[in-house]
Please model this.
Amino acid sequence: MARKILFSIMLSSFLTPFSSSALTLSLPSIGAEFASGPDILAWILSAYLVTSALCLLPMGKAADLYGKRRIYLLGLAGFTATNVIGALAGGVGALIVMRALQGFFASMLFATGMAILTLVVPKERRGFALGANVSVVYLGLATGPFLGGFINYYLGWRSIFVLITCLSAIAWGLARRYLAQEWITGGGHPMLPFHLLRTNREFRLSNLTAMVNYSATFAVSFLLSLYLQDVLGLSSREAGLILLLQPVVMAALSPACGHLSDKLPARLLVSLGMGLIACALLGLAAILRVDSLPFVAVLILVLGAGIALFNAPNNNAIMSCVDPADYSLATATLSAVRLLGQFASTLIVSGLLAIPWAAAPVENLRFGIAAAFVTFAVLSAAGIGPSLARKAHG
Model:
């Protein structure tokens, strides 16, 4: 039964990031249909991120009060319904409102999915289960642009919402069937994780490490997409195939890395992962002057391995250092930290790409991307400190 629950949650964990990233390459088509500029279109992505972050902790509290299963199923039902609205949207304003509402329902899934996994999977298998779940989250984030662009090219942008609607309905049906137990931990704990952050050093440092990591890695795919297409001149399909290397490695290694965290100290695995990420990012910054596609591909593989080595062990450390009554709060906190890191990553990139580094447009872009990679490498290396500062058994 635990495997069936794992599959159901993995499906929803794939869909929530996929629904965001899959729209990236379809925004020009949406803008052309509704005569909207990039500043307006950006809100189709941002509205989802903002409402998800704002509602995560309240939904974690609601799951404690009313039941994790109930909130999870409600989130899946609402997520499915909003995709139907997206497929039928008649204007960009309706799409933005829909995406904000979709972020609200997605926050219910973010706040409960990992908590449910932690409750139903035996402790000796918890690292593997969390690793498998992490792998599909990154698979959704990384494959979204490629698959979304492919679907948009052949079937139109509305078909992306149709596909997600169908898959979300399947996930809801599976969850309703296999999640037979309800988990209500009561209202004795605060909505904000102040008590955990104040008294639980492991929890505090693990979340700090996670925020640093997401700040250093979230915008990397966007930067690589710009480099491959606007500097090297590859088509979107060719660039997408190269970018697929990262999620393939992450999906392949994350379960094994999670399993390792059941046996080895998570702080060592996480620190090694952040070291690999820093090395890969510095390598990418250096290779921009050479324009060697094989080297870029190798560094993308190293980056994917580093991210896989980081995420599952760090998630396992967070969920293993709190009491069962705090699982929903811990899950919501980690998801909020992830979204804050992603937002910081986009801000860093926006700021660095706005600097006039060179007169020629291509060289200016090259310098901006290199500066972002160096900044992210420094961030990732800095994150090794709080990771190693955790307890030896964490």
Observations:
- The radius of gyration is 20 Å.
- The mean pLDDT is 86.
- The CA atoms of residues 82 and 203 lie 34 Å apart.
- The first helix runs from residue 2 to 21.
